[in-house]
Amino acid sequence: MRKLLVLGVVGFLAQLIDGSLGMAYGVTSSTLLLAAGLAPAAASAAVHFSEIGTSLVSGFSHHKLGNVDWRTVSILAIPGFVGAFAGATFLASLDGDAAKPWVAGILLTLGVYVIWRFLVLGGRRPTFKSRPSARMLAPMGLVGGALDAIGGGGWGPVGTTTLLSSGRLEPRKVIGSIDTSEFVVAVGGSLGFLFALSSSEIPWGYALALLCGGVVAAPIAAWLVKKLAARVLGVAAGGLIVVTNSKTIAETLGATGWTVGGVVGALAVLWITGIVWAVRQERRSREVTELEASYAEA
To answer: How many other C-beta atoms lie within 10 A of the C-beta of residue 36?
Structure first.
């Protein structure tokens, strides 16, 4: 019971981050489920089943607040569904112990990318020019859907960062559109796992706990998408992903307890340093903005 309550809190925090940044629900949840001992396929299945509910509520909330570009969603949906279904069946065919370090490697890479996006780039957002083309969206949806199912997360890191860097869609609509289209991706991945796994291999209790926490957070995140400091949240989420998956990889490579502890400790120090730096940068940015506004009024 205690583990389910913890997973509910994890689902809440993961969806709060995902609904605000357009990424990190699946990566964060899968990372912690793998750390708890679940096989990669079971962890990804639990995440995708929970995402059916969380992404539905999140998409509806973003739609009500005008954060969704439906043309983008309609083009992304089918390739994302196909990619997620294929990725789920592929992951389920792999041996759990053999797949775990590879999945951890994918998650770690995504975690580094999240940190890079929100720390090195400082959370900057390019100005939008024109709407993204189908030629760009379709392959992005296919790759993002497959990576999402195999790694237990990846739709947001692939989709959100690609659209933001393209500068072709308003940032709030990038996040809203990616979160809304994730519903179809979650359905595709879930059907793939149902097809490839027996129902007894899917941790339904874990999925329900994540779902409950995520559903509560979804409308809050949609409302806070303009309020939260994306730079700080992005670094915090990415650091958690990197630290946890580094531990999994180190243990798989046969590192001793002291070595694993040293690696995790060093990364944790860098993580905390990054968060502190991000907070300071955020404060400076706000001070500059307030100063510019006061000059404009004068």
So the answer is: 14
CA dist list (Å): 148 to 40, 52, 130? 12, 13, 27
pLDDT at 184 over 50: yes
Residue with tokens 């404060």: 283
**The two three-digit tokens of residue 137, written as one number:** 């969206």
Over residues 87-106, mean pLDDT: 76
- Cβ atoms of 166 and 132 within 8 Å: the answer is yes
Residue 164 to residues 37, 161, 190, 242, Cα–Cα distance (Å): 35, 5, 27, 22
Reference 104, options 27, 163, 190; nearest CA is 27
Taking the C-alpha atoms of 236, 128, 175 and 220 in order, what is their torsion angle to the nearest 10 degrees?
A: 80
pLDDT score for 188: 93
DSSP string over 176-226: HHHHHHHHHHHHHHHHHHHHHS-GGGS-HHHHHHHHHHHHHHHHHHHHHTT
Contact 161, 230 (CB under 8 A): no
pTM: 0.68
Asked whether 183 and 215 are in contact (CB, 8 A), the reply is: no
| Residue 278 to residue 274: CA distance in whole angstroms | 6
